[in-house]
Design goal:
Blueprint lengths: L1 E5 L3 H13 L3 E5 L2 H8 L7 E5 L7 H11 L6 E6 L4 H10 L3 E4 L4 H58 L5 H31 L1
Parallel strand pairs: 1-2, 1-3, 3-4, 4-5
């Protein structure tokens, strides 16, 4: 699992990253909220984020709000690190969009347990989304095939008419026949794809 660790303290950031790497995960580190936001705009951005509350630029709570607001459909699990133990502060962090929090100082054993919870939740979310993704892909393929039918029928019709008017000795006859056969093969393949798509929808 790719995990983003954001903390403006170099020592804390390094220790967190080393611990998480030791558990078999890949870490990406950031020193402030702006850097986190830039990372999250990239392809294959991390799904599990460990954010320090107090960071320059955009703090952890503001970043939670921004991520939930600007990326509402993305499956992201956010663990907020904070030295604030007041219930009101904890509630503020959770309401801002954090999924979990850890109060500093903490033991690595606790962090690992909470990271594992996040991974399980993300895995379950992906498993639930997978059938929907497959259905959308099948619908898109079926729609493309449907749109291809009419143009191919037109090409076949015109090529047949032209072939009827051309003698086989004409230099264009062979080319036109090749085009007709090629479009026919594409048409057959399209029908097979549509048949498979229809079965998958049932």
């Amino acid at each position: 699992m790719k995990i983003l660790v954001a903390d403006d303290g170099l020592t804390s950031r390094t220790m967190l990253s080393a611990a998480i790497n030791g558990w078999g995960h890949e870490t990406i580190t950031a020193a402030d909220g702006n850097e986190v936001w830039a990372i999250m705009q990239k392809d294959n951005a991390p799904k599990l984020l460990i954010l320090d509350w107090m960071m320059p630029g955009i703090n952890g709570v503001e970043l939670c709000r921004k991520l939930r607001s600007k990326m509402p459909n993305d499956a992201i699990y956010i663990i907020l690190l904070t030295s604030k133990s007041n219930p009101q502060d904890i509630a503020e962090g959770l309401e801002a969009g954090a999924d979990d929090y850890i109060i500093k100082p903490f033991e690595n054993l606790e962090l690992r347990a909470r990271v594992n919870v996040g991974i399980r939740i993300l895995t379950l979310s992906e498993e639930k989304l997978e059938p929907e993704k497959n259905r959308c892909a099948i619908d898109a393929i079926d729609e493309i095939c449907q749109e291809m039918v009419q143009p191919m029928q037109s090409v076949l019709g015109w090529s047949e008419m032209l072939l009827m008017d051309l003698p086989e000795s004409d230099i264009n006859y062979k080319t036109l026949k090749t085009i007709k056969e090629g479009v026919g093969q594409i048409g057959s393949l399209t029908k097979r794809i549509m048949a498979i798509s229809s079965k998958q929808k049932k």
